[in-house]
Structures are given as C-alpha cells and as structure tokens.
Amino acid sequence: MRQLRRQVLAGLIAGLGWAAAAGGALAQTAAAPTAAPVRIGMIEVFSGPLANTGESVFRNLLWAVERVNARGGVKLPGGARPLALVRYDSKGQNEEALSSLRAAVDGGINVVVQGNSSATAAALIDAIGKHNEREPQRQVVFLNYSAVDPVLTNEKCSYWHFRFDAHADMRMNALMSVLKDDKALKSIYLIGQDYSFGQAVLKEAKRQLADKRPDVKIVGDELHPMARVKDFLPYATKIKASGAQAVLTGNWGNDLTLLVKAAREVGFEGSFYTFYGNALGAPAAIGEAGIGKVIAVADWFPNVAMRESEAFYQSFRQRFPKPEDDYVHMRMQLLIESLAQSIERAGSTEAKAIAAALETVQVSFAGQSARMRAGDHQLQQPLVVAVMDKQGAPGVKFDVEGSGFGFRPVRQISPEQAEMPHSCQMQRPR
C-alpha cells in the first residue's frame, strides 16, 4: 500500500508540476484541481528487453494526463478532479499482469490501460470480465492502446474492453494499399513474433497477398520466439538467401530493431513493410539503406501536413527533449481525451457509467478525429502509410529520435476506408 501511494503521488506531482510550468504553452489552462485524483492503472512491461516500449507509452499517456490536468482536470458534480497514472510492471509476463490487475483493484483503481502484448490483453479481458461479474461493486473498465490481435474485438470482445489502435487486419489493409501498387515486387519474406499477434499478422498477410497480389511469391514464412532472440543474423541470412525483394513483419520493440540491424549487416537490400518500423531505434539501425525502402503504417505521423498536429508534436518534443524519447502516439492522446470526456458525460467515475459513455464517444484532438464503434468497441480513425526518407527531403520536416531520418506520408486512409466488419456478439451487463 505504501508503494501504491508513492506511485500515485509521483504521477500526480508530475501531472500537476507540468501543468504549473506549462503556462501559456497550452491553449487552455486552469487552476490545477486539488481533489483526490482519478487514478488510471497502467499495466505494462517496464523491465527486461521490451522495457523501452512501456516507457514510450508512459511518456505519451503522461503527456495526455498533464494536458487534462492543465485545463483543470475532469469536471464532476462534486468538483473537478485531476487524473493520475499509477504504473504496474508486468515484466512481459501474463501472470505478472494479472497480479498487477489484482493490486490495482485492491488499491481502488477501476480504469486500467495496457497494450504492448495481445496475449496479455486477452488475459486481462478474461480476468476483468470474470471479476466484474463476481464483484459488481468493484467493476473495472479496460482501455487498450496497442494490443491489435483482431480477435480482441471479434470473438473475444467484451463490454469492458475498448481498443484505441487499429487492429492488425486494418493495419494490413493499409499496408497492402501501397504494396499492391509496387509492380516490381515479385517475392516476399514473412517473419513475426511467435505469439497471438505475430501469428495473426502472418495469417492475414498470406490471405491479403493471395487476394490482392497473387503474383507475389512468399519465399519465407517464419515465426521466432518473442523477446528472446539476441542474434537475428541467422534469420537475416535466410532472408537474403531466399532472394526476397521485401520483408513483411509485425515485429515491434527490440525484435524489430535487431532484425533490421541484422538485415543491414548481411547486405539485404530489399524493402521492409512494417507495422512499427518508424521508431524505437529502427530508423537509426537501418540508416541510409532504408531510404525509400522502409514502409510503416500508423494512425498518425509527425510529418502529416496539418498545422494543429505539427504544433502538438513540437510541444511534445519540448516536454521530452531527449532524442530517444521521440516516439509519439496520437491514439494515446485520443484515449485519454476520450476517457476524460466520458467521465464528464457520465458525471461519474464508476466503471459501468464510463463504459456506457465510451461506447459512443467522438473525439477530436490536434486535427485528428475518431469515434468509438459501439458494436465491438473498436475505435474508427484515419490510418497513414509512410516511407522512410532523409530529414529535409520534401515532406520530411521532422526526423525520428535524432536519427536524421523521418517518414513521409504516401497514403492517407480515411476512417470510412479503414473500417472493417466485425463478428463481435457483445454481452452487455444487465
């Protein structure tokens, strides 16, 4: 309990301290609320080889929380209350994540966020569903920012779970909108992490390739252990030997960085079609060899030509000036904005009331707009496909992580174009 108090206090001080320091840097400022904070339990990997991914998310969510607090917090009938993040280290293990969930609930937290593992998200969805049925007086709502296995809003959908990232099939559709136009491409190597998300990516890649580019030969189809491979040279050697002109991967974190480093070392000169190739060390690892060859898909890129989004990005970089901290997720800003809006609409911090408001939330921030689809709790938002290029090249005002390389948008997909049907049979509480 003492550790929990320290975590809450640290998150609250960070939020209120930045709110006080921000002054005129934010469009709207108000007196920082002093009431008890609305605590958000962040269950994520903060140690081990994937710790950088958890820290990246934390910075994004913290920045969003600070912004809400700077404008006065969330307005409730009893008075405005600040938001506060409470960190729980899942250590990349499902059992640790479930233990963290129990600690959060025992500490009185009823909003949890997680995302950097679809397997962990599935475990949390199941545990929260059972807990909410067993203890209706302590119900919990789960906001997912990155776990993109499609089943989470299809067969395993839950009233208590809301996904703010485009799922893997949506992302694949966006990538394929560019890949299908690459007429020179005749062979491709598929590689991914061996867990639910990585398996889903390769399965969908094969389906969409057969549908949209049946002339492209799949010369490799491989899964590797997640976050356990230290040397990707054997994989890179196979990729080069296969004669593949491109690699398609859903890898993230160090598994992506080490893969692209190894591919560069063995002299692979093909393209990379990626879900997450735009940061966390990947551009610097690839270097000049990635210009025009590394393609990534995201809900937003810093070089999207919108005045509001550029101002937001520059303010984030002022808040987190270290080059290695430069990985900005617009969807995480939308998540916190949606939560704040839903708490205010509900006039309550109870999980059931928040969930009811989240089902129909429509949110806009920094030029980006999105809406939650009530049928499966999948956020509908734009997607962008971008290609790596040198900073200063046309359309590449900003680089990534001080690498000198950034991403130039080449395809923008509207929410209507990105939307896909679902098979969710939502069981709503009585």
Q: How would you sum up this structure, described in words?
A:
The protein is of the alpha/beta class and 430 residues long. The chain folds into two domains: 2-166 and 308-380, Response regulator (Rossmann fold, 3-Layer(aba) Sandwich), CATH 3.40.50; 169-298 and 382-418, Response regulator (Rossmann fold). The chain is 39% helix and 19% strand. It contains 13 helices and 15 strands. A seven-stranded mixed beta sheet has the order 7-6-8-9-10-14-15. It has a five-stranded parallel beta sheet with strand order 2-1-3-4-5, with helices on both faces. Helix 7 (233-241) crosses helix 8 and helix 11 (330-346) crosses helix 12. The protein is globular and about 65 Å long. The two termini are 33 Å apart. The model is unreliable at 1-29 (pLDDT under 50).
Descriptive tags:
Rossmann fold, globular, 15 strands, 430 residues, disordered N terminus, five-stranded parallel β-sheet, seven-stranded mixed β-sheet, 2 domains
| Percent in strands | 15-25%
CATH H level, superfamily name of the largest domain: Response regulator
What is the ordering of alpha helices and beta strands? HEHEHEHEEHEHEHEHEHEHHHEEEEEH
- Helical percentage: 25-40%
CATH architectural grouping of the largest domain: 3-Layer(aba) Sandwich
Low-confidence runs of at least 5 consecutive residues: 1-29
Q: How far from one another are the termini?
A: 33 Å
Round the Cα radius of gyration to an integer and report it.
21 Å
Structural class: alpha/beta
Mean pLDDT: 92
Quickly name the level 1 CATH class of the largest domain.
Alpha Beta
> How many helices does DSSP assign?
13
Query: How many E-type strands?
Result: 15
